[in-house]
């Protein structure tokens, strides 16, 4: 569930391209996220994916024709378009883009788009030469100028067997784009935030490193929710298996030292820093230039502390959020960190059960307030609750600043 999607009406237009099969996954994600999804298709699209597939996933009628849809629960293109919070056309063929650019409306998708005042996202998908053709490029330019969000296409294997530009963006990216567009005027619009995520790796030699079990899920969810609420978001991440979220400035780092440098640069104009990364506390004092051979009977690694990023960041006006991964005496250790590192909000979790898991049970600690224990929740929901708390702190600051 993503709060920005809850009960939002999303119209998904599908035009005739092989990438239509990926749109099935997009629709599934939107529904899981809490949106109400209506699918409209061109006749050609139904040759690639049947309307019944979309009907079964959305549990709502799918519109394919431009006439005769005013019966019972079914909504015509005008009603559908007018009620939408956002419309996304995926895949958008070269033909569909040309029609959209010129206001033509002779199929269910372009007709609905013309009758839709909500923001429009298009995900072009076509063969490379069709995409690079000046006619298509001009049409895309015209749509962009009109405020349409164009996602992709990307380079990769195409249906023709060629490799080139024209591959539709993946469902995950399109899902992020819908959320970002829906949230762009959200409560954090105008706010700049920096989120760190994942583990760091501290090199021992060219092939080995010290690290930890952090998956990055919590930090990525925090960056996505910040973006969903309209914040200009930078995500600084150690190595994880997760894709960079759409609409977020992504900075990939490896070691604690690299993360420290990236944070310092990113916070120069930020309002909030959320240090969710599981930064290694120690690193080998010396990194061997060559691979250490196993001939040595025993190996002693001497470690030195890494810089404490959160403690050393001291920009006036920057709201600092920290995470405390503890395995014992959670509250007591949490309080110590809150004071020592000058943190505004500390999120305490039991490291043994949270790292790598899908859910988390956390306690929020703020100075001068009772600790607030949250129930065990999916990490996406924990991220929403953390941003609720951050927004409250930002509002409090605003009130104090205004006297
Ligand atoms: N942190 C940091 N730089 C480090 C280590 C930690 O900025 N070198 C940040 C983490 O991102 C987190 C907070 O400090 O927000 C607390 O991290 P945690 O590992 O729980 O605590 P430590 O300060 O490292 O203390 P300890 O390991 O003794 O519990």
Automatic annotation (TrEMBL):
<feature type="binding site">
    <location>
        <position position="291"/>
    </location>
    <ligand>
        <name>CTP</name>
    </ligand>
</feature>
<feature type="domain" description="DNA/pantothenate metabolism flavoprotein C-terminal">
    <location>
        <begin position="188"/>
        <end position="392"/>
    </location>
</feature>
<comment type="function">
    <text>Catalyzes two sequential steps in the biosynthesis of coenzyme A. In the first step cysteine is conjugated to 4'-phosphopantothenate to form 4-phosphopantothenoylcysteine. In the second step the latter compound is decarboxylated to form 4'-phosphopantotheine.</text>
</comment>
<dbReference type="GO" id="GO:0004632">
    <property type="term" value="F:phosphopantothenate--cysteine ligase activity"/>
</dbReference>
<keyword id="KW-0285">Flavoprotein</keyword>
<dbReference type="GO" id="GO:0046872">
    <property type="term" value="F:metal ion binding"/>
</dbReference>
<keyword id="KW-0460">Magnesium</keyword>
<keyword id="KW-0210">Decarboxylase</keyword>
<dbReference type="InterPro" id="IPR035929">
    <property type="entry name" value="CoaB-like_sf"/>
</dbReference>
<feature type="binding site">
    <location>
        <position position="341"/>
    </location>
    <ligand>
        <name>CTP</name>
    </ligand>
</feature>
<feature type="binding site">
    <location>
        <position position="281"/>
    </location>
    <ligand>
        <name>CTP</name>
    </ligand>
</feature>
<keyword id="KW-0511">Multifunctional enzyme</keyword>
<keyword id="KW-0456">Lyase</keyword>
<comment type="function">
    <text>Catalyzes two steps in the biosynthesis of coenzyme A. In the first step cysteine is conjugated to 4'-phosphopantothenate to form 4-phosphopantothenoylcysteine, in the latter compound is decarboxylated to form 4'-phosphopantotheine.</text>
</comment>
<dbReference type="InterPro" id="IPR005252">
    <property type="entry name" value="CoaBC"/>
</dbReference>
<dbReference type="GO" id="GO:0015941">
    <property type="term" value="P:pantothenate catabolic process"/>
</dbReference>
<dbReference type="GO" id="GO:0004633">
    <property type="term" value="F:phosphopantothenoylcysteine decarboxylase activity"/>
</dbReference>
<dbReference type="InterPro" id="IPR007085">
    <property type="entry name" value="DNA/pantothenate-metab_flavo_C"/>
</dbReference>
<keyword id="KW-0479">Metal-binding</keyword>
<feature type="region of interest" description="Phosphopantothenoylcysteine decarboxylase">
    <location>
        <begin position="1"/>
        <end position="192"/>
    </location>
</feature>
<dbReference type="Pfam" id="PF04127">
    <property type="entry name" value="DFP"/>
</dbReference>
<keyword id="KW-0436">Ligase</keyword>
<comment type="similarity">
    <text>In the C-terminal section; belongs to the PPC synthetase family.</text>
</comment>
<feature type="domain" description="Flavoprotein">
    <location>
        <begin position="8"/>
        <end position="180"/>
    </location>
</feature>
<feature type="region of interest" description="Phosphopantothenate--cysteine ligase">
    <location>
        <begin position="193"/>
        <end position="403"/>
    </location>
</feature>
<feature type="binding site">
    <location>
        <position position="337"/>
    </location>
    <ligand>
        <name>CTP</name>
    </ligand>
</feature>
<comment type="similarity">
    <text>In the N-terminal section; belongs to the HFCD (homo-oligomeric flavin containing Cys decarboxylase) superfamily.</text>
</comment>
<dbReference type="InterPro" id="IPR036551">
    <property type="entry name" value="Flavin_trans-like"/>
</dbReference>
<dbReference type="InterPro" id="IPR003382">
    <property type="entry name" value="Flavoprotein"/>
</dbReference>
<protein>
    <recommendedName>
        <fullName>Coenzyme A biosynthesis bifunctional protein CoaBC</fullName>
        <ecNumber>4.1.1.36</ecNumber>
        <ecNumber>6.3.2.5</ecNumber>
    </recommendedName>
</protein>
<feature type="binding site">
    <location>
        <begin position="307"/>
        <end position="310"/>
    </location>
    <ligand>
        <name>CTP</name>
    </ligand>
</feature>
<dbReference type="Pfam" id="PF02441">
    <property type="entry name" value="Flavoprotein"/>
</dbReference>
<dbReference type="GO" id="GO:0071513">
    <property type="term" value="C:phosphopantothenoylcysteine decarboxylase complex"/>
</dbReference>
<comment type="pathway">
    <text>Cofactor biosynthesis; coenzyme A biosynthesis; CoA from (R)-pantothenate: step 3/5.</text>
</comment>
<comment type="pathway">
    <text>Cofactor biosynthesis; coenzyme A biosynthesis; CoA from (R)-pantothenate: step 2/5.</text>
</comment>
<dbReference type="GO" id="GO:0015937">
    <property type="term" value="P:coenzyme A biosynthetic process"/>
</dbReference>
<feature type="binding site">
    <location>
        <position position="323"/>
    </location>
    <ligand>
        <name>CTP</name>
    </ligand>
</feature>
<keyword id="KW-0288">FMN</keyword>
<dbReference type="GO" id="GO:0010181">
    <property type="term" value="F:FMN binding"/>
</dbReference>
């Amino acid at each position: 569930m993503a709060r920005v999607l809850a009960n939002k009406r999303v119209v998904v237009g599908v035009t005739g391209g092989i990438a239509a099969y990926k749109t099935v996954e997009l629709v599934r994600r939107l529904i899981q996220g809490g949106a109400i999804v209506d699918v409209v298709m061109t006749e050609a699209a139904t040759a690639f994916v049947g309307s019944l597939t979309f009907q079964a996933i959305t549990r709502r009628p799918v519109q394919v024709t431009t006439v005769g849809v005013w019966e019972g629960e079914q909504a015509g293109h005008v009603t559908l378009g007018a009620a939408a919070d956002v419309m996304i056309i995926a895949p958008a063929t070269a033909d569909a883009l040309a029609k959209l650019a010129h206001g033509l409306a002779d199929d269910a998708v372009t007709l609905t788009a013309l009758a839709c005042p909500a923001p429009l996202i298009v995900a072009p998908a076509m063969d490379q030469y069709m995409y690079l053709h000046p006619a298509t490029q001009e049409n895309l330019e015209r749509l962009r100028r009109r405020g349409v969000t164009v996602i992709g296409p990307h380079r990769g294997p195409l249906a023709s067997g060629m490799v080139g530009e024209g591959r539709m963006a993946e469902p995950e990216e399109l899902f992020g784009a819908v959320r970002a567009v829906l949230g762009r005027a959200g409560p954090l619009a105008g706010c700049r935030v920096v989120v760190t995520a994942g583990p760091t790796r501290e090199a021992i030699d060219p092939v080995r490193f010290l690290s930890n079990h952090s998956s990055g899920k919590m930090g990525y969810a925090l960056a996505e929710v910040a973006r969903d609420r309209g914040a200009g978001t930078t995500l600084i991440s150690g190595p994880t298996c997760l894709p960079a979220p759409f609409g977020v400035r992504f900075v990939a780092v490896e070691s604690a030292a690299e993360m420290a440098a990236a944070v310092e640069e990113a916070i120069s104009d930020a309002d909030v820093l959320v240090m969710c990364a599981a930064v290694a506390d120690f690193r080998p004092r010396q990194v061997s230039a060559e691979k250490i051979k196993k001939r040595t009977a025993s190996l002693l690694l001497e470690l030195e502390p890494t810089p404490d990023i959160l403690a050393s960041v001291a920009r006036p006006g920057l709201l600092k959020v920290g995470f405390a991964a503890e395995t014992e005496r959670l509250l007591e250790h949490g309080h110590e960190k809150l004071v020592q590192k000058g943190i505004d909000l500390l999120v305490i979790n039991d490291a043994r059960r949270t790292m790598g898991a899908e859910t988390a049970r956390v306690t929020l600690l703020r100075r001068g307030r009772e600790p607030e224990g949250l129930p065990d929740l999916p990490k996406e929901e924990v991220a929403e609750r953390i941003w609720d708390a951050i927004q409250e702190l930002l509002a409090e600051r605003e009130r104090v600043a205004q006297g």
